[in-house]
Design brief:
Elements (H helix, E strand, L loop, with lengths): L4 E4 L4 E3 L19 E2 L1 H11 L3 H8 E5 L6 E5 L12 E2 L2 E2 L7 H5 L2 E7 L6 E8 L12 E3 H7 L3 H20 L6 H11 L2 H10 L10 H7 L3 H16 L16
């Protein structure tokens, strides 16, 4: 894999395009090892008209990261023998407008670092040029910046970068594995948004956190605002619980 990666600058052009006319069309949707970020799940469950509970139970598996000790959600393969993506068809991806961040970014790989003094996020890109992929023979060329803009990756990176900040915060404040309850709370607040909204409204879950009142109001109906609130709840309560009287969270289903 490392032999296929090459650093590429934002203003550097590369040739790539994918369509049914490409010989390897849909091949990248096999041999699936697809991790999902919270914003991926938000978009996918809305696209499919499912609640977060339904989507997670039907399409994902969950395990605990060996280094972070946090829940990791992965897409469940549709065909075990080829590990096929459950959303791929002969005509292509049936959830394409709301496909996950890694699908949008491909064939690029994005890495970030944060300046400790200024907090500024620096991003680097690499081009993943796999031997089997015929998309690199396309006449279409674009810069890295053009590709990321055209693929509408910005909103995904916004939330994914926040998740990485949460993981760093957790490692600083609560190093080592989380207990079972804390893992459950983390999972619900970030991945199971419909359940989190139910708890937010019925159990006054957010009484003790510092969030803009308008964002709290928006979160009652808007999933994107709710995810922002969930991330704040994790940072302010779950990883700094000693500052508050309690989380107010219960384990009921939606």
């Amino acid at each position: 894999m490392n032999d296929c990666l090459k650093a590429i600058a934002p203003d550097t052009t590369f040739r790539f395009a994918c369509s049914p006319a490409v010989a390897c069309f849909n091949e990248c949707c096999q041999d699936l090892n697809q991790f999902l970020y919270p914003y991926d799940i938000l978009r996918l469950k809305k696209r499919l008209g499912l609640s977060s509970v339904e989507f997670l139970e039907r399409y994902t598996t969950r395990h605990i990261g060996p280094e972070s000790g946090l829940p990791i959600v992965a897409l469940k393969a549709a065909a075990a023998e080829r590990l096929t993506c459950p959303f791929v068809t002969q005509k292509g991806c049936r959830v394409y407008p709301d496909r996950p961040a890694s699908c949008r970014t491909y064939p690029l790989v994005r890495a970030i670092s944060r300046n400790r003094e200024t907090g500024e996020v620096n991003e680097r890109f690499m081009l993943l040029k796999e031997p089997h992929c015929s998309g690199f023979d396309a006449p279409t060329a674009q810069t890295v910046s053009q590709w990321t803009n055209n693929q509408e990756i910005g909103i995904y990176n916004h939330f994914n970068d926040q998740l990485l900040d949460i993981i760093r915060l957790k490692n600083q404040l609560r190093p080592g594995p989380l207990d079972l309850k804390a893992r459950h709370l983390f999972y619900v607040a970030l991945y199971d948004l419909d359940r989190f909204r139910n708890q937010m409204i019925n159990n006054k879950l957010l009484d003790n956190i510092d969030v803009e009142p308008q964002k709290l109001a928006d979160a009652k109906a808007d999933d994107t605002a709710l995810l922002e609130v969930g991330m704040e709840w994790v940072k302010q309560v779950l990883f700094k619980m000693q500052r508050f009287r309690g989380s107010g969270f219960k384990g009921s289903r939606v």
